[in-house]
Amino acid sequence: MNPDFKIKFSPNRNVSLNGFIGIFLIFIFLISCKGAKEARFRGSLESNNCQQEFRYLNDNFLSQDDFDLAYWRSIFGDDFSDNSIMVAHTINLKDLLLAYRDNLDNFQNDPSLENKVAVMDNLQSLNHRINLVSLEISAVIAELDCEEEKAVQIGNFMRKKEGDTNTKLTVGSIVVGALGAVMTSVLVLNDREVRGERVAIGTAVIGAAFGFAILANKRKVDFYHERNPLKDFWEGGETSEIYPPAIWFYLNYEKNIHRNASSSRKELKQGWIEAEEFADMMAEKREALINLLFGKGGEYSADMLFQRADMLDQVEAQINWMKEDLRNLSMEILSLQTP
After folding, report:
1. DSSP letter string over 87-110?
2. Is the pLDDT higher at 67 or at 293?
3. In angstroms, rounded to a whole number, what is the distance separating the alpha carbons of residues 262 and 255?
4. Strand ranges (E), the chain
5. Is 307 within 8 Å of 223 (Cβ atoms)?
6. Sign of torsion over alpha carbons 94, 100, 103, 105
7. Is residue 104 within 8 Å of 337, Cβ to Cβ?
8. pLDDT tens column, 164-206
């Protein structure tokens, strides 16, 4: 090959960065556009109403002050544990339990058909009530699970979009860097060092812009929840707009054996407050996050959607404890029949 070989440019053609800049801007515009598919996906999820209409077994909310555990312990003696007595109070079962125990004593003293029927009627009523409460708990858990799944699905969709955009930006950065290297080499071979330096600097700037775009690629979405299961859990109070009276009393009872001194609601709320997401924030940002998560919603990032889903899952876990306590109560009821 001739050592003086050089690639010649037409004397009427200028090598400029305008083409690079134009391509860069078009590329950024194309990857940042939100397609109709994304809009349809969000719309279908947001139109999914997780609230299911159902009547509560009891519309009257119970006060902590109305329950005297020491008194009821003296009534039931060793027949039931403290937690079972509390659960029986929560689901309005104390009178049925007393009637069942009395009829069982009568049957054991006089095993007549009449006394046996009375015991069986009481037991059926107790089991029926416990099963209805269990179904009520399942309905609340289903709503929480639906809200959690909705947040996770939108978060995953946004995370995928961010990943796709980052891939395109990375490819664009590689392409621009390669083209810049080729153009610089060509210009240098044609004794156009100054222009080659300009191309090198320009492509470096564009490459840096691609890198900045990757760092700044954090999508947000408007996500609203007029009925927010986290709101009542955060604010507390004697009554709840979301949770049935029995579940609300259970969550706020401060002598539950599953918690030492605080209620499950207060303990979980304290855990949220001490979490890194809240503890390391300035007061203004913390207030904005509280309004977002525990209010009616707003502009969510994927990370915030996943955090909301995690909180809903924690609330669901606390309510599931009530099912375990109902099972224990059922076992203690059956154990009364064993001499």
Report:
1. HHHHTT-HHHHHHHHHHHHHHHHS
2. 293
3. 7
4. 220-224, 297-301
5. no
6. negative
7. yes
8. 776 776 766 676 666 666 666 666 666 566 665 666 666 666 7
